[in-house]
Automatic annotation (TrEMBL):
It comes from the Bacteria. This is GNAT family N-acetyltransferase. It comes from Methylocystis borbori. Its EC number is 2.3.1.-. PROSITE patterns: GNAT (PS51186).
Length: 167
């Protein structure tokens, strides 16, 4: 990453509007090849109620990535077992922000005793997670705001990584 590794910090309630905007632009731009305009609009509608979106982020363990002091992405761990969200600013996609966030979520889950981490990966994110060792388990369709969107439930065994580190 040309700018250096991103800094990470916990989600703060004051981040909610910025993260909602990042969520929207990330889906609109980075998922354009995998989902049509109506599907993306439905997905983006999850952030229409910014208070509810902020509550969702606050209920999970949400980590924010910073590049040059500006929010570059975020990821969240729900119930210590579900990699719930991972979104990166489109201008920083492919520059290590997503990997730094995923590393953090995996380490946090592992530290909390999670053996298997699960993610419902969008079609746009499936290859990213597969490259990190996640294995596809089931193909899903989910209705959001009247649109059907496909995703893939993928899992990664964290206990195996911990055992590998112990040697």
């Amino acid at each position: 990453m040309a700018r250096g590794a991103p800094g990470l910090r916990p989600f703060l309630p004051a981040d909610a509007a910025t993260l909602a905007a990042l969520f929207r632009v990330s889906i609109e731009t980075l998922a354009a090849e995998d989902y049509d305009e109506d599907q993306r609009a439905a997905w983006i509608s999850a952030a229409d109620d910014e208070d509810a979106f902020a509550a969702q982020l606050g209920e999970a363990l949400t980590v924010v990535a910073l590049v040059d002091g500006e929010i570059a992405g975020f990821a969240s761990l729900k119930d210590n077992t579900d990699f719930d969200m991972l979104y990166v600013r489109p201008d920083l996609a492919g520059q290590g922000v997503g990997s730094a966030l995923a590393d953090a979520i995996e380490k946090l889950a592992d530290a909390r005793g999670t053996k298997t981490l699960s993610v419902d990966a969008s079609d746009a994110a499936r290859d990213f997670f597969a490259a990190r060792g996640y294995v596809a388990k089931t193909r899903n369709t989910k209705e959001i705001a009247g649109q059907w969107l496909g995703n893939t439930t993928m899992t990664k065994e964290l206990a195996a990584e911990a055992a590998g580190r112990a040697h």
